[in-house]
Design a protein that fits this description.
236 residues; alpha+beta; 9 strands; 29% strand; globular; ExoRNase_PH_dom2_sf; 3'-5'-RNA exonuclease activity
Length: 236
């Protein structure tokens, strides 16, 4: 039934390659099927002005798509000319990663997560969150190794997966052909222990029931477990 031939509850193949750039404190290339995202973590020994002398750390994110990440070339986005979609996604990534962060333990420093979509085939924001956590984890590991951070500020992984109603069926991890025709589309951000961080769901031409939402949430929980296992393997 699915264009890819996958089962309703089947994820696309997942791979996470770490330390793919020389200079970033943490980096990975995450591949979820045909969606490939380069994630880097950059450490600064400062925080935004509103957090100065607070003792609290900060994680923020930026997101972008390379011009030929999709079927046709798109223009590069200057920072002051970003689309609403880009701004919304990078705020989502930042919120999601901060939700799993002990900002006191991190101390008064900032880590910026850059997520650059090399190739898009649906679920880019979910892959960016999942890969962004890996890059963040690697950067924090370096801080802990040299003793700059004593208590682990990342007690639980953070990952995200898409689910939706395609041809009337609840499916896990939508690729582009499914995402573009889904009656309902949702993105689920969760911790490794199953705590919810954010759910984005909307009808795309069809309404959905409470029971269907529960079914999608159940699928998302299983998908996040698979992603968390891949994160742990990558950062072990």
């Amino acid at each position: 039934m699915r264009p890819s031939g996958r089962q309703l509850s089947e994820m696309r193949p997942i791979s996470i390659e770490t330390d793919v750039t020389r200079h970033a404190e943490g980096s990975c290339l995450i591949r979820v099927g045909g969606t490939h995202v380069l994630c880097t973590a950059s450490l600064e020994e400062r925080v935004p002005p509103f957090l100065k002398n607070s003792g609290l750390g900060w994680v923020t994110a930026e997101y972008g798509m390379l011009p030929r990440a999709t079927h046709t070339r798109m223009r590069r986005e200057a920072k002051n000319g970003q689309s609403g979609r880009t701004q919304e996604i990078q705020r989502l990534i930042g919120r999601s990663l901060r939700a799993g962060l002990d900002r006191v333990a991190l101390g008064e420093r900032q880590i910026t997560i850059d997520c650059d979509v090399i190739q898009a085939d649906g679920g880019t924001r979910c892959a960016a969150i999942t890969g962004g956590w890996v890059a963040l984890r690697l950067a924090v590991n370096k801080l802990m190794k040299v003793g700059d951070v004593i208590t682990d500020p990342l007690p639980d992984p953070v990952a995200a997966v898409s689910c939706g109603l395609y041809a009337g069926q609840a499916v896990l991890d939508l690729d582009y052909p499914e995402d573009s025709e889904a009656g309902v589309d949702g993105n689920f951000v969760m911790t490794g222990s199953g705590r919810l961080i954010e759910i984005q769901m909307s009808a795309e031409g069809a309404t959905f029931s409470r029971s269907q939402m529960t079914e999608l949430l159940d699928l998302a929980e299983d998908g996040v477990k698979t992603l968390v296992a891949a994160q742990k393997d990558a950062t072990a």
